[in-house]
Amino acid sequence: MPDTPLPPGQALTRKFPVVGESAPAPGGLDLDSWQLTVDGRVASPVTLDWSRYLALPHAERRVDIHCVTGWSRLGVSIAGVPLSTLLDAVRPLPSARFVRFASHSDRAHDTSLPIELARSDTWLVHAVDGAPLTVEHGFPLRTVTPARYFYKSLKWVRRIELMDEDRLGYWERESAYHNVGDPWPGDQRFTSGSLEPQELERLRSGRDLSRWRLPRRVVIGAALPGWDPRDRDLRGLQLKHCDLRDARLEGADLRRANLSLSDLRDARLAGCDLREADLEGANLAGADLARSDLRGAALSATRFFEEREGSPRREARVDGLRIDGASGLLEDQESFLRQRGVELA
């Protein structure tokens, strides 16, 4: 791949990994009943059906996409309508300072942007690289805002609301994702750690983990190096962007755990059950994954090795690793696993 400047912590890919949900709520795909409403602090609210959307003037644009999990895809061709076209039609009131986008999704995903950024950089998109959007990428219509991490772009958009006050979106509310989300500073993935010191000590002891299991607390940015919990039943734990270097988790049950963007370098994970776990953006370089089960895991931008200038190459141990049915592997990580005999089918 070309030597192209990337935001900090990003890896280049030619793939288009699926992130988040892969299908909308019921009714989201029915073009006969589909509608897009633009309202809120506007003079002339409007509701479009699919034929009215298609009648709008369309254009194409090349953009770079940067996902918060750590992958970047450059030069993506998108086709659709600049949001500014609709904003001009509905005539925002002087008090309108933010734009909120709401989705046809089971978890009611939404996100927001300052109106100046939304007007200048957001598009309504129905096709990518010359083909209609697939369902998992937002068919029939999504938003794309290239200047922000991809969680600020919304699949299956159904409503655009102009507001005088900002409102945190789904990922910002539920997972402490940064409300600005600019990829280039390198520090706008999450807001901060989410645990008070006494809670962190409770978690570190690993005696009673029920309060942190799915779908309860999401732990952000916890410092847990060398973690050795007494309870090896870690199913559904939500430990995002945590420091788990050298964690001693041999044989743990981590089914459906969320360890996205966590640092698991040199962690002891031999024999772990990680089926359907979310490991997007996690760093597993140097970890012992021998005989672990990652079937069905989410692995976009997951790293199994790393090379740093002035340091020896660090690789995960992957003998006996099961990974069939996992999704999202980037090209270099896929090649690494194949070379070490891991079956990826």
Question: What can you tell me about this protein's structure?
Answer:
The chain is of the alpha+beta class. It folds into two domains: 11-175, Sulfite Oxidase, Chain A, domain 2 (Alpha-Beta Complex); 192-345, E3 ubiquitin-protein ligase SopA (Pectate Lyase C-like, 3 Solenoid), CATH 2.160.20. The protein contains six helices and 15 strands. The protein has helices at residues 50-54, 83-90, 115-121, 170-175, 197-205, 331-339, and strands at residues 11-12, 35-40, 46-49, 59-66, 71-82, 98-103, 110-114, 123-128, 131-132, 142-144, 157-163, 219-220, 239-240, 305-306, 314-315. The strands form four sheets. Strands 1, 4, 5, 8, 9 and 10 form a six-stranded mixed sheet that branches. Strand 6 (98-103) and strand 7 form a beta hairpin. It is globular and about 60 Å long. The two termini are 24 Å apart. The relative contact order is 0.12. The model has no long low-confidence stretch (mean pLDDT 94).
